[in-house]
Structure to design on (509 residues):
C-alpha cells in the first residue's frame, strides 16, 4: 500500500528534459538579473577567430564567465588584458552547452584610479621599450614658425588662451584642427588630426604647419585618458612636424608628454614655446645693427692703419733712387779729387828728383802713369758696373714691392667693399622698412616721435602714418591720453579685415 502511495507522489512531480530545464533556468536568471554591474579581475582572456572575447571575472572567493561580442569590443574603450581590475556592466545569462552562467558585457570600465595607474604604467613601459620616448627622437622647435597647427577643442577656453598669447608675443598664421578632447572618440580624432597635419603638402592650398600644439585643459585622470591611448602616443612619436604637448595642468602627466618633442605645463606656456617675443627680436636686431656698423667702421680704420704701415715699411722708391744717385755723385767727386792730388804729388816728386837721364825718367813715369790710369779706369768701370747693378736690383725690388702693395691694397679694398655690401644688405633686411613692406605702418606724433600705444594719443592731436610707399597725415578724433614717447621705433600692424581676408590669423575651422 505504501509503495503505491510513493509511486503516485513521484508521478506528480513535473518531468523536464535537460534542454527544457536549461532554458527554464536561463529565462529565470535573465528575468531576475536583467542588468548587473560586476567588479572583478580579468583572468584568462581569449580571442578566437570569431572575433569575440571570452574571459573570466574573479575575486578572492568566486569566478564568473564573461563574454564580449565582436561588435561590442570596439565600443568598450578598454582593451581586455590579464590582471586588469574592471567593473563590467551587462546582463546575466546561462550557456546551456556547459551548464554555466555568464555575463554578457556591453560596457567595461576600470575599477578605480589604482587600476588606471597600473594600466598607465604598463603601457608606458611597453612603449618605452619600443623606443618611442628616446631623447634621440626629439626634434628641435623652429625659431620663428610661419604656421602654427593646434589640435584641440574649438569651443573651449584653451584655444582662446593660445590665440591670445600668440597675438601678444608674435602674431602667426594658426590652423586649428577641431577634435573631441574627452570621450570614446577623442583618441581616434586626436591621432587622426596629428596624422592629417603631417600629410599636408608644403606647397598645397592649405599651408603645412611648422609646429604643432596638442592642447587640452585640466581634468581628472579619466578625463585625460584619451591622451594616454596608444594610438595617440604613436601618432605623436611618428609626427615629422615638431610637436608640443600641453595637456592638463603642470601637475598632470600623460603618455603623449613622453612622445612629444617638448612638453608645456599649460596651453599658454605652449604658445610661449612656439614663438618668440617680437619686441625682443626687434630690440635685438637694432642692437645687432648698431654693433654691425661699429664693427665695419672699426675694420675700415684698422685696415687703413695696416695699409699705411705697409706703405711706410716699403719706403718711397724715388727717394731711394735719389740717395743712390747722390752717393754716386759724391764718389765721383772724391775720385776726381784723388786723381788730381795723385798727379800733383807725382809731378812734385818728379821735379824734386835729379834727372840724370830725363828722357828715361820721363818714359818710366809715363809708363807708371799709364798703368795707374788704366788701373783707375778699370776701377771706375767696375765701380760703375757694380753701382748700376745695385741700382737695377734696387729698382726691381721696388717694382716688386709696388706690385705687391697694389695687389694687397686692391684685394683689401675689394674685400672691404664686399663686406660692406653684405653688411648693408643684412642691415637692410633688419630695417623696419621691410616690416612696412609687409603691410604694417609706423605712427609718429607731431614731433616725429613714434607712438607706441593708443594711450600715447589725445583727441585733436596731429599724427603722421608712414607706409611702405610714403607718409600721410591724420588727426586723432578720440584719444586715450598722453604718455611720454619712447625713443625706440615701434611698428603698428595694419587693420585686420573682418571678412577673413589674407591676414596673419586665419579662420579657426
Amino acid at each position: 500500500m505504501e509503495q503505491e502511495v510513493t509511486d503516485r507522489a513521484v508521478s506528480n512531480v513535473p518531468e523536464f528534459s535537460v534542454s527544457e530545464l536549461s532554458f527554464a533556468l536561463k529565462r529565470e536568471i535573465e528575468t531576475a538579473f536583467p542588468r548587473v554591474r560586476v567588479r572583478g579581475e580579468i583572468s584568462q582572456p581569449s580571442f578566437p577567430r570569431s572575433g569575440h572575447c571570452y574571459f573570466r571575472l574573479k575575486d578572492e572567493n568566486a569566478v564568473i564567465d564573461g563574454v564580449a561580442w565582436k561588435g561590442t569590443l570596439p565600443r568598450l574603450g578598454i582593451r581586455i588584458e590579464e590582471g586588469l581590475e574592471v567593473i563590467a556592466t551587462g546582463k546575466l545569462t546561462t550557456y546551456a552547452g556547459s551548464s554555466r552562467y555568464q555575463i554578457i558585457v556591453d560596457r567595461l570600465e576600470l575599477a578605480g584610479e589604482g587600476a588606471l595607474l597600473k594600466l598607465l604604467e604598463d603601457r608606458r613601459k611597453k612603449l618605452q621599450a619600443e623606443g618611442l620616448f628616446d631623447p634621440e627622437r626629439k626634434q628641435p622647435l623652429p625659431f620663428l614658425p610661419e604656421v602654427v597647427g593646434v589640435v584641440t577643442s574649438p569651443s573651449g577656453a584653451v584655444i582662446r588662451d593660445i590665440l591670445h598669447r600668440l597675438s601678444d608675443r608674435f602674431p602667426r598664421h594658426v590652423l586649428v584642427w577641431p577634435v573631441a578632447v574627452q570621450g570614446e572618440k577623442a583618441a581616434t580624432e586626436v591621432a587622426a588630426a596629428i596624422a592629417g597635419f603631417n600629410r599636408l603638402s608644403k606647397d598645397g592650398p592649405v599651408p603645412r604647419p611648422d609646429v604643432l600644439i596638442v592642447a587640452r585643459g585640466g581634468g581628472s585622470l579619466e578625463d585625460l585618458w584619451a591622451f594616454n591611448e596608444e594610438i595617440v602616443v604613436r601618432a605623436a612619436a611618428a609626427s615629422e612636424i615638431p610637436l608640443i604637448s600641453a595637456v592638463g595642468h603642470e601637475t598632470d602627466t600623460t603618455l603623449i608628454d613622453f612622445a612629444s618633442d617638448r612638453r608645456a605645463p599649460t596651453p599658454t606656456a605652449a604658445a610661449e614655446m612656439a614663438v618668440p617675443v617680437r619686441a625682443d627680436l626687434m630690440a635685438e636686431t637694432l642692437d645687432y645693427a648698431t654693433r654691425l656698423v661699429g664693427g665695419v667702421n672699426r675694420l675700415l680704420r684698422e685696415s687703413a692703419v695696416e695699409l699705411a704701415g705697409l706703405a711706410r715699411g716699403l719706403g718711397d722708391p724715388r727717394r731711394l733712387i735719389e740717395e743712390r744717385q747722390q752717393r754716386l755723385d759724391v764718389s765721383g767727386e772724391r775720385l776726381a779729387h784723388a786723381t788730381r792730388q795723385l798727379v800733383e804729388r807725382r809731378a812734385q816728386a818728379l821735379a824734386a828728383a835729379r834727372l840724370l837721364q830725363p828722357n828715361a825718367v820721363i818714359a818710366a813715369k809715363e809708363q807708371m802713369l799709364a798703368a795707374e790710369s788704366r788701373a783707375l779706369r778699370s776701377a771706375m768701370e767696375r765701380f760703375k758696373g757694380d753701382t748700376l747693378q745695385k741700382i737695377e736690383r734696387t729698382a726691381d725690388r721696388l717694382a716688386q714691392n709696388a706690385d705687391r702693395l697694389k695687389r694687397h691694397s686692391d684685394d683689401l679694398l675689394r674685400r672691404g667693399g664686399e663686406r660692406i655690401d653684405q653688411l648693408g644688405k643684412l642691415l637692410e633686411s633688419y630695417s623696419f622698412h621691410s616690416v612696412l613692406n609687409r603691410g604694417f605702418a609706423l605712427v609718429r606724433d607731431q614731433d616725429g616721435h613714434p607712438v607706441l600705444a593708443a594711450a600715447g594719443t589725445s583727441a585733436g592731436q596731429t599724427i603722421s602714418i608712414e607706409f611702405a610707399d610714403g607718409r600721410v597725415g591724420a588727426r586723432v578724433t578720440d584719444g586715450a591720453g598722453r604718455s611720454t614717447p619712447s625713443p625706440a621705433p615701434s611698428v603698428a600692424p595694419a587693420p585686420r579685415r573682418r571678412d577673413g581676408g589674407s591676414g596673419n590669423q586665419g579662420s579657426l575651422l
Notes: The CA atoms of residues 129 and 418 lie 55 Å apart. Confidence is low (pLDDT under 50) at residues 482-509. The longest strand covers residues 36-46.
